[in-house]
Design goal:
362 residues; alpha/beta; Rossmann fold; 8-stranded mixed β-sheet; 13 helices; globular; binds S-adenosylmethionine
């Protein structure tokens, strides 16, 4: 175990002890990912990149192809014009790659580009990436009271801690984490709960799933502050009926390390990413609770094609075309990833949802 992993384990054990020797999984995940200086995203290791050789663990759409940002820029530009705003607010900007692509494409159309990033190490990396745009970019650590901007979050919701629910012999339990002294490792322990998934899951067989109170409260917090503008959230996930489908009985919790995935977040804590898919119906309901409307919901492939990606690729090199294809292909990022757009006030139909809008499926 590295020194960092050992310190993180000690920290989690301290929190666990203070909480009665059991941590609900969302608290464990929050510490594993975000404990200051020690958590996966807080340490200075490289998390996001195209290849394992860079030391990275997974790739995201803007890291895959700069055409992600250039086509998204068209939708962002439309939203800025439609909502009479001049600012972008990005959550969880990773290496700063999407911000760089958008600022390069939009230039002076964006008067200010604000980033909210929980990881100090990533904030530093973003500042390096965005050095050429220092006059436009700033970082804030708390949400502004009033937001007048186009708000973006790519793969941010999936990095928010989830609670785990386990149905055993027809009874729902909350799955948490304990420390087993004899084995010197973390282990699962289920405790009775009154909570259950938002839809009934047919059958009586054992079933593991997630609920997303933190991601939904994030949507409410941002939504209630949004005075003017629009919110675009891009992530992997499904509407509720697919998310809680009776066949998805192992849940969607997943870890990423060196571009390989596994399903054991209790091993190698702090050295790998932990994520869960998004229940987009929950996102839409949270947004509606604070008076927002869903402006559109569709697959990433539809959204990018509607935003003009194919035209932008006409003069691209073969290699650039091949990487951009991955953003759209059904078996790569095209279908599993979705885009949801939220807005307040006067409703308009964003370019990205002109064809293939699936809002009715939420
Ligand atoms: C999977 S990475 C995605 C990074 C980047 N958006 C990209 O596409 O490459 C998740 C990012 O979300 C950040 N994050 C997680 N929770 C956050 C929150 N509540 N507010 C702001 N950033 C958050 C993480 O620190 C990290 O930068």
């Amino acid at each position: 175990m590295t020194a960092q992993a050992s310190l993180l384990t000690t920290k989690i054990k301290q929190f666990m002890q203070a909480a009665g020797d059991w941590l609900p999984f969302d608290r464990f995940m929050a510490l594993a990912l975000y404990a200051p200086s020690l958590g996966y995203y807080s340490a200075s290791q490289q998390q996001i990149g195209r290849m394992p050789a860079s030391g990275s663990d997974f790739v995201t759409a803007p890291e895959m192809s700069s055409y992600f940002g250039t086509s998204l820029a068209r939708s962002v530009k439309e939203a800025l014009v439609q909502t009479h705003t001049h600012a972008v607010l990005e959550f969880g900007a990773g290496n700063g790659t999407l911000a760089l692509q958008l600022l390069s494409a939009l230039g002076e159309q964006v008067q200010s580009y604000t980033i909210v990033e929980v990881s100090a190490a990533l904030r530093e990396r973003q500042a390096q990436t965005l050095a050429a745009f220092a006059a436009q970019v700033r970082w804030v650590s708390v949400l502004p009271d009033s937001i007048q901007a186009v708000v973006l979050g790519n793969e941010v919701l999936d990095a928010m801690p989830v609670r785990l629910l386990q149905r055993t012999a027809g009874v729902w339990y909350e799955r948490g984490v304990v420390w087993t002294e004899a084995e010197s490792c973390f282990d699962w322990q289920d405790r009775p709960t009154d909570d259950c998934p938002p839809v009934e899951i047919a059958g009586e067989y054992d079933y593991l799933t997630e609920i997303h109170p933190q991601a939904e409260s994030f949507v409410r917090s941002v939504g209630e502050r949004l005075q003017r503008g629009a919110i675009f959230l891009i992530d992997y996930g499904f509407p509720e009926a697919e998310y809680y489908h009776e066949q998805r009985h192992m849940g969607t919790l997943m870890c990423h390390q060196a571009h390989l995935s596994d399903s054991d977040p209790l091993q190698d804590v702090g050295r790998k990413d932990i994520t869960a898919h998004i229940n987009f119906t929950g996102v839409a309901l949270a947004a509606r609770e604070v008076g927002l409307e869903v402006l559109g919901y569709t697959s990433q492939a539809h959204f990018l094609i509607n935003s003009g990606l194919l035209g932008l690729l006409e003069n691209a090199s073969m290699q650039d075309k091949a990487m951009a294809q991955k953003l759209m292909l059904e078996h790569e990022m095209g279908e599993l990833f979705k885009v949801i757009a939220l807005g307040r006030g006067e409703i308009w139909q964003p370019l990205g949802f002109v064809q293939g809008d699936r809002t009715h499926r939420l």
